[in-house]
Each structure stands twice: as C-alpha cells, then as structure tokens.
Amino acid sequence: MSTGWGERVAVAFTTAPPTQETVARTADPPGAPWWRRFSVWFPLLVYTVTRAVDAVYFAVMQRWQIPMVPGNGAARVIFPTPAAPGYFPVTANWDGQWYHEIAELGYPDPLPIDPDTGQVAQNPWAFYPAFPMLARGLMRLTGWNFYVAGSTLSLVVGAVAMVLLFRLVDRAAGRWSAIVATVATTTWVAAPVLQTAYSESCALLVIVLLLTALRGRRYGWVLVLLVVLALTRNLVLVSAPPLIVHALVRHLRRDTDPFPVRQRAALLGLTVLSVALTFLWPTICGLVTGDQDGYTKTMAGWGVDAFEIKLPTWLDYIDADYGWPGWLACLLAVGWFVRRMLSTDTARWGPELWGWAGAYPAYQVLVTGIGPSRIRYALLAFPVFLLLAWILNQPRLRRRRAWWLAAYAVVLVALQGWWVWNYWMITELPPDVQFP
What we know:
Elements: H1 3-14, H2 38-61, H3 87-90, H4 95-105, H5 130-142, H6 146-173, H7 175-186, H8 200-215, H9 219-230, H10 240-252, H11 261-276, H12 280-289, H13 294-300, H14 311-341, H15 344-347, H16 351-367, H17 373-377, H18 386-392, H19 395-398, H20 401-424
Helix pairs in contact: 1-10, 2-6, 2-7, 2-20, 4-5, 5-6, 6-7, 6-8, 7-18, 8-9, 8-16, 9-11, 10-11, 10-16
C-alpha cells in the first residue's frame, strides 16, 4: 500500500460534499432563538407530523385488540389489559410487558426456573436496563404509570435524537443528505416504535451521540457512550468498525493532520473496549444472580444461542422460500450495496457514518435470525438512508428530488399503518405468532 494511495483514500473520507449534493443552508436571522433554526424546526416538524399520524393509527387500531391476560399460551402477560385498552396501554405491547416488569419490579434473583423443563425460564434479564430504569425514574418523578411514562419517554428522546441526527449528518455530509436521512428515518416502516415503550429511541440517541463524539474526537465522551450503549442494547460491538476506520483515516492523514501517540493509544483502547463491553450485561447478570451463565441460559429460554452466528438461518430462508430468484435478488442487492459503499460518494460521509452504515447491517445478518423484528432493527441503520440522498441526486431525478422524497415519505407513512396493524396490534394469538 503506497502513501499516495492511502492519502487519496483518506482525502475521500474527509472531502466536503460536492456542490450538487448540498442545499444552501437556511440563513437564520442573527440572534434567532433555537426554535427558529432550520436544523431544529425541520427535524422536529417531520418527527411531529409522522408521530401524530402514527398516534392516529394506534388510537384507531387499538379498538380491535383482544384482552391480554396471563396464560394465553403465546405471549407472557404480568399486567393484564382489557380489550381495546386505549392508546397508552397498547404502546406497551409485546416487549413492553417485559420493560414494564423491570420498571415496576426490577430484575429477578435468583433466575426463575421453568417447572416443566427444569431450565431457566424466560425472564427480564434478556432486556437491557437503560430504558426501563429511565422509565422507572420518570414514573417516580411524575406519578405516571408505566404506559404513559414509557411511551412519553420514547417520544421525547426520539425527538432529541432526530434533531441531533440532522445536525450530525448536516455537518458530515451536507444539508440535502441531512434532510433525506431525517425524513427517511422518521418515516421508516417501523418508526412508530419511537413512541412506544421500547428501547429504540434511547438506542438511536446514544448511537447518534457516539458517532458525533467520535467525529469530534471527544474520546472521553466516546468511552462514556460506549458504556451507555452496552447497557441500552446489545449493539456496542458495532462501534468497533467506525472506531477502526476513524483511526485508519487519521493515521493515513497524519502528515497533514497530527495524530499523537496518546490519541492512537486512546483509539486502540476504545476499540478493544467496544468488544469487551459486549460482555458487560451478561457479566452483571452473572454477578447479581450468582450464575455466570445466567444470561446465556436466559436467552436459551427463547430458543436463542446468545453467541451463535445466525447467517446460515438467512441462507436457509432464502433458499427455502425464494429459490434461485431470491439468491439472484440478494446477490444483486448486496453487490450494489458493496459497490456503493466502496465509492468516493459514500466515503464523503466521513469514516464514522460510513463505518456504522457498513457494520450495522452486517452485524444484524450475522447475529440475528430472520423474523419481523428485523424491520424494526433496521431503524438504527440510519446512515444507510444517505444512499437514498445519492439516488435522488442523480441527474434524471435531481430537479424534482424534493417531490420524489415527499412521495417516498407518503408511501412509507402509509406502510407504517400496515406495520402497526400487522405486527403491533394483538388481534389474535396463534401458537406461531410473529413478534414485531
């Protein structure tokens, strides 16, 4: 690898977006309050409109939800709800029951045992503590019940995440990319989850803050946010590739941008830590319960091997359900994605966004099996949406790109209603029920 080649690669990662990929930044009046700045009111407006539409979906569709009672044979229920329970209770469906239990009762010690199998039963240790503990704090502060506290917490945290996401992408890739990333994220099919008692909003905020801190070379904050992410979702390992790419780009540009030994050591330590922190929550589970394999046994209650590579399940699914057309479609899609990710267009996003955009989809394919939850997981792959900004900037689409983006948003918001009805609302509980 020659120095000249390395310098060209590094420059590609740090070059400002070309003119055709930018939108003139709205000139805010001098001294304008924060709420009149485009980078604040635009993401909040898009987020508010889409969440309001989704609130209507939830409020109307909850009328068809069945009573949720213990012993239903398909979904665990500790806090029963009647049929048509109302907006807030329905936002705590599915995993919301587990977060509700954690917020009210904490984590069990010792681990519960299934009397029929003698094995560790499904229990709250499968769910990370950041969101339910924040919800508990809000419940005590306000006197709200979990349904209101959990949903409101997600809604507000999601709004903050969207503003900071816009700012991150705006500074890294330009105003047009920031607009597209914000619209595409808040209109994603599973984005209604941002107003439910789930951890997606908290995870999104932590990821945005982490990438922002890394881009700003605030390595002390990166350390703190890695620990927070390790207690929010099982995603901290995905931070390793952005850290590695960030360090590599700094190394390649060390002649023009000093890269002190102290910072090299810090990035090496953060990369190692991002791997080690994958075991933080399992270790806490083992220390509290006295069973060092407690987390692994807990996940086995769902039939999940916590450390198994899941790629073969995806390959089997494609082969069994779609045959050669499925293989062809996947190969074309993956080939196009890899080609675009190796282009200078995506390198201009910067090593942080680029690293997450490449690592997160790969991580999901490797460590999660097939199922509807993958639609929800895709929400956290927000840098991938910058590819949509690139597509809409092509010569044939550029003149009407705002209209194309608006049409995309309308279609996706309509599909959010489909997602709420098909995956979130519990209108029946067959034995093979699909969890969102």
